[in-house]
Every structure is written in structure tokens, then in C-alpha cells.
Specification:
Elements lengths: L3 E7 L5 E2 L15 E7 L2 H5 L22 E2 L4 H7 L3 E2 L3 E5 L6 H12 L5 E5 L4 H11 L6 E4 L3 H11 L3 E5 L16 H18 L2 E6 L12 H5 L2 E6 L6 E9 L7 E7 L2 E4 L18 E8 L2 E13 L6 E4 L3 H15 L6 E7 L11 H13 L1 E2 L4 E3 L2 E2 L5 E2 L4 H10 L4 E5 L12 E5 L2 H11 L1 E2 L3
Length: 457
């Protein structure tokens, strides 16, 4: 027996709805929906059956060639993607509400639409709302818009107009006949993503999917959603702040953990070409508890400032860190006590990474300890210093990768002295740049205490 389903069709614009509503979401007409019973398995077969058929090939008979890419109009975003958008790829973009996902995508498709046909499918906003945002952003490209949540109808229209790039905003609002559950459920997200992926691969269409995130920051829906797509981009940063960091946590066509940085302005997102400048505080008066280091995000060295505040604890000891792993901080405080002779068991310790960036690599260990000691001893570390190195549990300063590139980045920004692991000491000295190579934490702290400025109380 063929299964049937109820569908509600608008008498004015023929828009399809999964349930009855008083006002049509497409043409805004009131009481215009008519109930219609349709075969449920009919659209399951017709949505993808007329696409190009697949064939089996031998491995050595396949001729490899460089994937052609399309630029997004932003060098920063292109860098994160590995050089641009690859034809036939699926990019999933996640982030907190209001952080700028739709804004970035609208700017991107507006640039691409100058040469190639694009289709913006929105299941959350009406066409009028998208148009208002485009006017506010100054978009002057005539993008094709579609307000629809029914997957089979979207694919049917996409096969007719054949867009080079198609946007799905968002995947959690889409619904398909393959699942009986409500839109946004695990099965609906999985089945919709699978059909969109199959469509993109067979038509060589670039698919940009926007995804919701949970309160923990992970993409909503099944974990298999991230496995299906080629690239996963995450928006980082405070939605109420100015800067946005886009990180590639998965990329089949480029480097993972590559980041691009944007500033939110009235006319949209503007790319930041020199990110090291925004992660340093602008205070003119030097103060204790501040240390500069060089981290590496995929292929890019970035200079950041680490700030520490250590104060006597009133009752319960507090350990607060923003942009840093809590367990890493606890371990560093234990190493500082054991091998540096400085205890913090009766003190509150607060750590902040300026600019809101998240630091994951161990090269920041030594600079964090320097910032903590600077706050405890109330001393000022010279602004021309830069420090990096991993601190082991036995107090040794372990080497980090790409040390020479970090030193060149520091020298380019005007730093004069670097305290680094002994194993990272370059064979040739850098001109007008002093390098202090240390083997253990005690040696590093002794040099810092002797050459820093003590603040008189």
C-alpha cells in the first residue's frame, strides 16, 4: 500500500507547506492554504533519479587534476578554505545566533554572483528579510532567492536553474519525505544533508550549508552531519563583540585549524589582514601581569597578549581562564610551585587572552607563567620581549615547531628580544634581535626577574 502524506498548498502562489498556518510564509496571503493528499514515496524517487549515473573505475585509470576553485572575494576566507571554494564541495558553517553567519554568506554569494549563478535558499527568513539585509550591506548583485523548506522542491528547482553555488540557510529547517519526524530532528537533518550532498557531488554545485549550534557550541543534529561534508567552519568570538574568528575544524581541500579574522561593521564583515595587531592591548602605560607570545594557527603565526591577575584569595581559591584550557593552567601553576619556588595555593589566578582568541597549543606555556609571575611579583616585563616554549612537568623548556617563523614574525612587529627553548635556538643570529635560549624554567625565571622593572608600591 502506497503511503500518503498531507501537504498544504497556497491558492495564490502555489507554495507548499508541511502544516497548516494562517498566513502563507511565501506570499503573506491569509487563509489561502488548501489541504492536499499526495503519495509519500513519489518524491523520494523523483528528486535524484534523473541526475548523471555513476560508474566504476580502476584506481590507476583515474586521471588526477588540480581542483578548480572559485574565490569568495575575501582573501582571509579563501585562506581558511585552502584557496577558495572547490567545485562540487559542501561547506558547513556553524556559530552562535547573531554572530554573522548569514551576513558572511550573503556577502560571499553576492561576489560570486557577478560571474556565476547563485541561489540563496532560506528556510528561516522570508525573501523580504533577506532583501532588507542585502540593502543594509550594500549588496548590488542580483542574487536568486528562494524561501522554501521542502527539500524535494528545492532540488527540483535547482536542477532547472543549475546554480554554481547554492546556500541552504539553515539545514535544521529543511524537511524531506524520507523522514516522518519534525524538521530539525536528528533523522531529518541526516536525510536532508545526505540528499543535498548527493545532489552537489553529481551536479558539481558548491553547497554552502548554515548550521545551528547547541548551548555547548557544537553543531546541532547528528554527528554524521560533519562527516558528510567536505569542510566545517566554526565562528568563534562573542556575538556582542567586534571581531569574529572563523576556524576550519575539518577541510578535505586544505589545512585544518586555519583561521580568518573579520571585524563586524555596519556594512557587514570586513577582513583583517594583520591579525597580530588586534590581539595586543592598546594601553600606553606599562603594567604588570602582561606577556606577549607567538602562537601558530595552522600556517599562520599570530602575536597575542596574555594577561594575568593574581590576588590573595578571600575564602575559596578561584582559577578563571578565558581563551585557555583550565587543566593546562592548573598544571602550569603546579610546575611553577615545584620548579620555580612560587606558590599560588592561597591566591586567585585570572588569565585572559586579549582579543577573544582561543589558545590550544603548548607553545604558550612559558609566556603564561611569565605573566603570572609578573603579577605576583608586581614587575613590568619590557614591551620589546617575546616569549614562547612548552614547559614540561619536570621543569624543562621543550622546543616548539616552526620556531624560526615565529621569531621572524616577532622581529617584523618590532620586538627586540626573545626567550625561547634552547633546542629552538637558530644557527644564525637575527640582525638587531637578541635571543635568550633557556633549558629549564628556573633559568628562564631568573633572567626575567633580573632584567624586569619592579613597580614601587
Amino acid at each position: 500500500m502506497i503511503k500518503t502524506k498531507l501537504e498544504f498548498i497556497c491558492n495564490k502562489c502555489n507554495a507548499s507547506h508541511l502544516k497548516w498556518v494562517g498566513q502563507c510564509t511565501n506570499c503573506k496571503s491569509w487563509n489561502s492554504l488548501t489541504e492536499l493528499t499526495v503519495p509519500k514515496n513519489k518524491s523520494k524517487i523523483s528528486s535524484l533519479d534523473d541526475l548523471q549515473s555513476s560508474k566504476i573505475q580502476n584506481l590507476f585509470s583515474v586521471k588526477t587534476k588540480n581542483k578548480s576553485r572559485i574565490t569568495t572575494g575575501s582573501k582571509e576566507l579563501d585562506r581558511t578554505l585552502g584557496g577558495g571554494l572547490v567545485k562540487g564541495s559542501i561547506v558547513l558553517i556553524g556559530g552562535s545566533p547573531g554572530i554573522g553567519k548569514s551576513t558572511l554568506i550573503l556577502q560571499t554569494v553576492a561576489f560570486i554572483n557577478r560571474k556565476d549563478k547563485t541561489l540563496y535558499v532560506s528556510g528561516e527568513e522570508s525573501i523580504e528579510q533577506i532583501t532588507e539585509r542585502a540593502i543594509r550591506l550594500g549588496v548590488n548583485s542580483d542574487i536568486l532567492l528562494l524561501s522554501e523548506t521542502y527539500l524535494e522542491k528545492i532540488i527540483e528547482l535547482a536542477k532547472k536553474i543549475k546554480p554554481k553555488v547554492m546556500v541552504i540557510d539553515s539545514i535544521q529547517t529543511m524537511a524531506t519525505d524520507l523522514s516522518d519526524s519534525a524538521p530539525g530532528s536528528t533523522s531529518q537533518v541526516r536525510d536532508c544533508a545526505a540528499q543535498f550532498t548527493q545532489f552537489a557531488k553529481k551536479t558539481n554545485c558548491i553547497l554552502l550549508m548554515i548550521g545551528h549550534v547547541t548551548k555547548d557550541g557544537a553543531l546541532a543534529g547528528p554527528r554524521i552531519l560533519e562527516h558528510m561534508v567536505d569542510t566545517v567552519l566554526y565562528f568563534e568570538g562573542d556575538p556582542s563583540g567586534r571581531y569574529r574568528v572563523i576556524r576550519a575544524v575539518k577541510n578535505r581541500f586544505g589545512t585544518i585549524n586555519e583561521i580568518s579574522i573579520f571585524a563586524m561593521q555596519e556594512n557587514g564583515l570586513k577582513q583583517i589582514t594583520n591579525p597580530s595587531a588586534i590581539f595586543l592591548s592598546n594601553q600606553n602605560k606599562p603594567s604588570s601581569g602582561s606577556m606577549i607570545t607567538v602562537i601558530r594557527e595552522a600556517t599562520r603565526p599570530i602575536i597575542i597578549e596574555i594577561q594575568a591577575l593574581v590576588d590573595h584569595a578571600s575564602e575559596h581559591v578561584k582559577r578563571v581562564c578565558l581563551g585557555l584550557d583550565y587543566n593546562r593552567l592548573t598544571m602550569q601553576l603546579a610546575v611553577l610551585h615545584k620548579h620555580g619556588g612560587i606558590a599560588t595555593y592561597n591566591k586567585d589566578v585570572f588569565i585572559n587572552i586579549v582579543g577573544g582568541i582561543k589558545v590550544n597549543e603548548t607553545a604558550s606555556d612559558l609566556s603564561i607563567i611569565f605573566a603570572i609571575v609578573s603579577s605576583i611579583k608586581n614587575i613590568i616585563i619590557p614591551k620589546t620581549w617575546i616569549v614562547f616554549g612548552e614547559v614540561g612537568l619536570t621543569g624543562e623548556i621543550r622546543p616548539v615547531y616552526n620556531a624560526l617563523e615565529r621569531l621572524k614574525e616577532a622581529k617584523k612587529h618590532g620586538f627586540k628580544l626573545a626567550i625561547i627553548p634552547y633546542a629552538n635556538k637558530p644557527k644564525k643570529d637575527l640582525k638587531d634581535f637578541k635571543i635568550i635560549a633557556v633549558e629549564d624554567l628556573y633559568q628562564a625565571l631568573q633572567y626575567m626577574l633580573k632584567n624586569s622593572i619592579t613597580i614601587k608600591k
